[in-house]
Design goal:
The chain is of the alpha+beta class. The protein has 3 helices and 9 strands, in the order αααβββββββββ. It has helices spanning about 1-20, 25-35, 40-45; strands at about 50, 55, 65-70, 85-90, 95-105, 110-115, 115, 120, 130-135. The protein is globular, with a radius of gyration of 19 Å.
Length: about 160
């Protein structure tokens, strides 16, 4: 009986260890992924009124990728998980765009989505916008800096325009 108890305990230890070794998924990331899976095809984003702005790289490495922005959704005062203001793609060889994240933007703040506060961006800023609040959600490409960080060291603009 002691051997059985020891074996059950050992199996439980490995099960817990395995779970903690894996990446914990934030419920908002799962919600965003489910609500926006349609954007895996960049043609869907374009059909829904999103237009690209240049690929954004970080000064410390990594990138955000190419943002496809929906100008109509920038007018939304309350964030909606199904209506991100920007859909973000990593450019690949041959012009292939791979969905990596979405961005929620609000000009009213402080803004939040499912309890996650948006980051504040003052003006002037690199986008030429008035002060705004934003939340990136890396739902399709893991980000070692966190699911809500701005830049992702695993994303590159290297293949933008064949570069």
């Amino acid at each position: 009986m002691k051997t059985l108890a020891w074996a059950v305990g050992l199996v439980s230890l490995f099960a817990v260890g395995g779970a903690s070794a894996g990446v914990a998924v934030n419920p908002l990331v799962e919600q965003v992924r489910a609500a926006n899976e349609r954007f895996k095809d960049v043609k869907v984003a374009v059909a829904e009124g999103y237009a690209p702005i240049p690929c954004t790289s970080g000064i410390d490495g990594g990138a955000m990728g190419v943002h496809y922005v929906n100008g109509d959704f920038l007018k939304d005062e309350v964030p909606d998980v199904k209506r991100p203001q920007a859909v973000m793609y990593e450019p690949g060889p041959g012009g292939k765009m791979t969905l990596v994240a979405v961005e929620y933007i609000s000009f009213k703040g402080p803004a939040s989505l499912s309890g996650h506060l948006f980051a504040f961006n003052g003006a002037p800023n690199r986008y030429g916008l008035n002060p705004f609040y934003e939340l990136h959600v890396w739902a399709w490409k893991p980000n070692p800096k966190g699911a809500f960080a701005d830049m992702n060291p695993n994303v590159s603009c290297e293949h933008m325009h064949g570069g």
